[in-house]
Amino acid sequence: MGISPLPLLSAHLNGNGEMSESNVSLWSKLLEAQANRRLKVKKQRVATKKVRHLRCRRPRSILMKRRARLEGSRRPMNRVEKKLKTLKKLIPNNESMGLDGLFRDTADYILSLQMRVEVMQIMVKVLTGSNK
């Protein structure tokens, strides 16, 4: 990410392996500039991550509806829970406890509906006079 310091360092050393004072100050300025550049790039990356996080493709109204729905309950319902809730609404006089009671009441209700259908079919046959 920038200039490699090793070639610069070897170019500024005098014969006994030490740098002159002017080279030391230049060297420190170079290292400081590189550090500032790295810090600047890092800040830019953090800023773009925040901006990406804030930008959303969904309209605000959808986000508000989703948030309101989630605030009402601790966690969103999965498919099975939704279907059980719908089933509880469909079964009249549902006073059962637990899933076993709900399924028992559902089976009883289905049988009673089947009996009603058979009775109505018999009534239609009698009233229309067909002996089929």
UniProtKB/TrEMBL annotation:
**UniProt keyword Transcription present:** yes
What's one GO MF term for it? protein dimerization activity
Q: Which SUPFAM superfamilies match?
A: HLH, helix-loop-helix DNA-binding domain (SSF47459)
In terms of domain of life, where is this protein from? Eukaryota
PROSITE patterns in alphabetical order: BHLH
GO CC annotations, alphabetized: nucleus
Q: What is this protein called?
A: Sequence-specific DNA binding transcription factor, putative
